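Thread amino acids onto this structure.
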């Protein structure tokens, strides 16, 4: 093994887990669950194919935290006994091989587009299927291209969704057997909506300033940490993405405030997962202003030396180079694209 590639394959400690290398499989929505959001044999096969050696870290796909947070068909959830049992079978299946899998919890607030195939089969009442978001700002939904104006969540509903997060992570860790949870704070979903000024125009304690826009994310983190502990809690962010109407003109003050607060609040936080400015949701970014790389490096420096996962546009050459220079964990697309990628 050359000295250039050596760092990528060195072990690293992430919370209570020792990983055999620094290649991570990031979450990807697969839509292979049942109509009642139960992960089935296709999910078990998918993850087993991508983890054939001990020491791997897989981050499970987007997962609904509750009935009110659902919006896509055939995406798994983890709030019913049947759903928990489906996930538990998956976690039990991977133990013999030394695999390590994380649950990714998500609220699909402003992405609950009407007209998605199979959406009418979701068993929700009229109130729970209403489109809600951080603020009542028009949004173009990711998979349908449909534009709607969601209703802004009330303060009482915000508390309810925080409770849904707590129930979901407790189910994941204490009942389904996951090693930890990663909060989806990226790509224009609920946590990201509260963080960014383009999607948060609230005038209460959850909007109007950097500190207030960070409040929902920090309250979710505090509640989850109280339920499962700092070492089992992580967060994914996309400060430079414009997915689903995101894209602050200057994300630096907002995201440095949030990252600094998490660092000080949770010294044993499992890791931070950041999507690089090289990608915008599903697409590569052709021209990237130099200042975005400077901002990205500054955010990483703020978090160092804690574990950090960097995702976005990594090929073999870039991945080896970044791992060698920084020691970061990296998301490698071939783990998703090819079930025969063996680490």
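Threaded sequence (343 positions):
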């Amino acid at each position: 093994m050359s000295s250039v590639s050596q760092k990528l394959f060195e072990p690293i400690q992430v919370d209570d887990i020792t990983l055999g290398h620094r290649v991570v499989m990031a979450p990807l929505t697969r839509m292979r669950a049942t109509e009642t959001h139960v992960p089935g044999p296709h999910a078990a096969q998918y993850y087993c194919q991508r983890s054939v050696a001990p020491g791997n870290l897989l981050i499970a796909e987007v997962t609904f935290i509750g009935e009110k947070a659902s919006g896509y068909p055939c995406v798994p959830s983890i709030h019913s006994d049947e759903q928990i049992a489906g996930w538990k079978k998956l976690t039990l299946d991977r133990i013999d091989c030394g695999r390590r899998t994380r649950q990714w919890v998500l609220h699909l607030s402003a992405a609950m587009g009407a007209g998605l195939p199979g959406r009418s089969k979701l068993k929700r009442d009229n109130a729970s299927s209403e489109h809600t978001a951080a603020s009542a700002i028009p949004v173009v939904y990711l998979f349908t291209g449909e534009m709607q104006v969601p209703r802004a969540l009330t303060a009482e509903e915000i508390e309810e969704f925080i409770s849904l997060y707590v129930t979901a992570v407790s189910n994941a860790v204490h009942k389904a057997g996951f090693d930890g949870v990663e909060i989806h704070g990226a790509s224009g979903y609920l946590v990201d909506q509260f963080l960014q000024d383009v999607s948060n125009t609230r005038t209460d304690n959850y909007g109007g300033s950097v500190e207030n826009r960070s409040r929902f994310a920090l309250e979710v983190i505090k509640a989850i940490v109280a339920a499962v502990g700092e070492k089992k809690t992580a967060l994914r962010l996309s400060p430079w993405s414009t997915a689903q109407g995101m894209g602050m003109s200057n994300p630096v003050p907002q995201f440095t405030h949030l990252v600094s607060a998490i660092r000080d609040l949770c010294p044993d936080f499992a890791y931070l997962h950041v999507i690089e400015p090289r990608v915008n949701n599903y697409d590569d970014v052709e021209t990237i202003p130099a200042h975005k790389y400077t901002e990205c490096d500054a955010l990483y420096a703020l978090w160092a030396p804690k574990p950090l996962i960097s995702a976005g546009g990594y090929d073999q050459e870039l991945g080896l180079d970044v791992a060698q220079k920084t020691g970061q964990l990296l998301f490698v697309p071939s783990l998703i694209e090819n079930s025969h990628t063996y680490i």
